[in-house]
Amino acid sequence: MHECAPTQTPEIDLTALRDRYLAERDKRLRDEGQGQYLVTEDGFTEFYESDPYTAVLPREPISAEIGVAILGGGWAGLIAAARLEQAGVTDFRIIELGGDFGGAWYWNRYPGIQVDTDSYSYLPLLEETGYIPSEKYSHGDECFEHAQRIGKHFNLYERAVFSTLVKSLEWDEEINRWRIGTNRGDDIRARFVIMAQGPFNKPKLPGIEGIDEFRGHTFHSARWDYDYTGGTVKGGLDRLAGKRVAVIGTGASGIQVIPHIARSAEQLFVFQRTPSYIYDRGNVPTDPEWAASLRPGWTRERKRNFHTAAFEAFAPGQPDLICDGWTEVSRNLEAHLSATGGWATLTPEKFMELREIEDYKAMERVRARVDEVVSDPATAAALKPYYRFLCKRPCFSDEYLPTFNRENVTLVDVSATKGVERITAEGIVAHGVEHEVDCIIFASGFEITTDLDRRLGIAPFTGRDGLSLYEHWASGYRTLHGLTTRGFPNAFFTGFIQGGVTASTTDMFDQQAGHIAYIVAHAFETGATMVEPTAEAVDQWCTTVRETAVDNSNFQRECTPGYYNNEGEQQIRSHLGDPYWPGFHAFEDLLEAWRATGELPGLTLGT
To answer: Strand, helix or coil at 436?
Structure first.
């Protein structure tokens, strides 16, 4: 939409920053790792399963036999349904806990919610639905509306089972079907199952001592209580007038809600363990002339450009179509190499060395911006992030940092105590001081790298001979292409497992959905009742993933604790799963070659 120039970055003391990064990491490490968060079911089942937006109407339990069950109605489920429909598979149902499509964009309706990546690369099926986002970074209501648009475009509403939580999955060998049990007493027997729960499907709560003793009001940002706060996703939280509010969590959700709370509450306390790095947002409406100039295939080109910047590197002279904090390091590195003539002698080792330097420079610029915006030196110092780019999820806001210049806002830095000490009946204790509040809002994120059984909440999940999926994958994922696994016929998986990973998560879902749709359609066309990878194919794929892997565990261990590195636990569990390291597009080429054989190599088709 406009020319993207490299960013002016300050000089750095690389050795001093490396030492500072490690020191800041060490003071936040906790022995319990992921154990610092509550298991949602332990006294908080209602918190997770209740729906504040849609009344759950009583209905009779469903007893039905269907072709395909898609578990989840967010982006992964919607894309899977669309690709099945295009492949000629129409006998499917989408089972979704929410009262509508949208997934994370259905549940997350907190004030200020907005995408943190380029909308034109993030929102799926834009060309298929003929839609252009209204701005570079779409707000949450536009994302939710787009999910509904996809549902209407592909006639998915008539095949949706809303307000229904899947509780069990069991392979029935007598009928060669998956028996799906739900919280509504359903008995749905599906020939195929597609797991499309998404990475942000289950909120988590910090296991703070006394969390169940507070006598005021509490809620999670993913279940926003507008009856209590007033207002809408646009803000205007008028019912917070005169109230003292605490927010625990300063990740993406906290960054976006805090400015709106500050405008309305009498007093706001922000409890911060680790500061996020905050890029300027610079949101702009979509240029009509640019939109009119787009030609078929434009989304694929843009997503590939985004992926190149975030996961690979720009080639000499390659333009940066995204031009934001996600692409800054690659953009600056390309400019440096072009200006110095470094491309001619560039080795992989030199490339990594230069990229690290540009990483440190970009983060130093982010820290310098804090000093430019926040007036109190002590507060500014506490808000500066000291860790590498992509140790945590990048955040974007033009309003968050200025919020700490307000007299009614107090930043409570709890890094020295590795978090809040405890919650009392009246408030929150930090550094031995009790902060009395009327409301606590947990902006504490989602179950992303916790144990699989905890994330899915499906028990039992058993395949052939009663084999538990959780036991089957206890020592690591074992799949063919990250999509199917031995012992679980006709079950397909989406998400971060053992496949291609790209900067646009929805593009990953689309790659997976297209491949799954091809296999399912082939099974229906040939009359195959079971599809399952051979043991040899699974072994070979696991070997391929292992032998092509790049060991970045040292980078992850040096990161400040968070969900990106499994809260710093010794056993590194990346939020990206065990990816195919040669790259997302190399993986696409591999899948295309596999499909081109027409023989489904490595899969057994039973009748």
So the answer is: strand
